[in-house]
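Write out the 3D structure for:
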Amino acid sequence: MSDTSILTMPDNRVAVIGAGPAGLAAGRWLIAAGLEPVIFEASARLGGQWNPAAATSATWPGMRTNTSRVMTAFSDLDHAPGSHTYLRQEEMLDYLERYALSSGLMPHLRLKTRVERLERAGAVWLVRSGSDAGSRVEAFSRVVVATGRQALPDVPDIAGLEGFTGSLGAAHTAQYAGAERYRGRSVVVAGCSVSALEIATDIAQGGAARVVVTNRRQRYVLPKLIAGVPTDHVMFNRAAALMERVLPPEMLAEGLTMKIRQLAGSPGQFGAPEPSGNAFAAGISQSQGFLPAVAEGRIEVRPWMERIEGQTVHLRDGSSVRADAILFGTGYRMSMPWLCEELAGAIGLDAYGVDLFDHTFHPDLPGLAFLGLFDLVGPAFPVLELQARWAALCLREPAALPPRDAMLACVSRSRATRCGPVSLPMHAAALVFARHAGVEPDLARWPQLKRALLFGPLSPASFRLQGPHALADAAARVEAQAAEFGAITSPDFTAEELAIRDLLALDPLQAAV
């Protein structure tokens, strides 16, 4: 960076790269830690994925969240009264702008400013950025990378794909702009991710002549609502996370699979293939309308693609589909082209992820934190906020981190075991970050909330009951959020909940349960 003079920033300033949910949460909690964020955002508007004008946004007209309003929020700001259970893209963008305003983040934003390079120079981090005013290089003592996991659409290598002659072409679902384009057409949707299933359903309901979903393996599919209660309230709770401490993985997998079958059925009951193995092996996806659309014959589920010849997609079972369009809902590759080679090598950056201590720090890169660089199964906002709270604490007080050897051992385990995108269950990730930040509530201190805390939603407010930045109204909010949708309206445990509670008491860390 020798061609540009370097401006040294005051020691309390922290560069935050990205103004999506993770970057905004980072900024809010850096301020709480007595630090001053400088938030770089390439787009003209904040919001990340929720800003449809952002280059990396994968939202589409009419898109709604797949997590509930309770779980798609930060602890400082609930959604407006009367909000729908699942929010539209424009409502989420409005929410993030209100959050930035109420958190005092607006003066800290540098919109239309793209980070072009990040590298280390001794004890400081050099950030080169470009804007309409030109390029500049600034030296920061601390940096937070919050650019998100979904940066570069991943399209698999299919023989003949480049020669596909369907009139609407082939694209990634990140480019999807609504169902109208596909009305009356034959469409192949590849993948079993949430976006693939939601888009396939949207196209089928929007009047497509034929919709074929092709995947390598059939996942279990949860609806958004179970008996009127959001699925993320039912499946992602403290009890489920704590069970991982007292049961071996095979028992957890068996129990989860049985619960999914009881609550949502198996895809085979709707006419889709049966998943192979338990829920851990097969994977879990979510869509309210996908399996019913399969049952109604609106969507066909077929094996993966073998090759493409002209307009014909040949499948692995020997059958074929004549398609006007192919949409790949096949995930994303990690991409941080502005990260210098030294840093990329240190964190093991590849197409699938990075190797860090608890997904956040590297012991050899003091003053640098990464937020949200993993595939999260379940609601993201509570996890991102907890990770941001912990990261802000450690950036202010590096002694709060474990010894280097312990961190390095975690990095080495990640490097040795990682063979694809890292998927984390939301409830497990939340408790890890909450414990690091010292904000996981002690159930013994909240007897009147014990059922709500164990079996209610793992809401952001439940991490403001005690510890740093506790809120006076947190208990009332936890109780109200657990009671929403007619779910947990009394402190009395059901027989099934009592059995789980007693099992959890085997864990000495939860003996007070």
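The longest strand covers residues 114-121.
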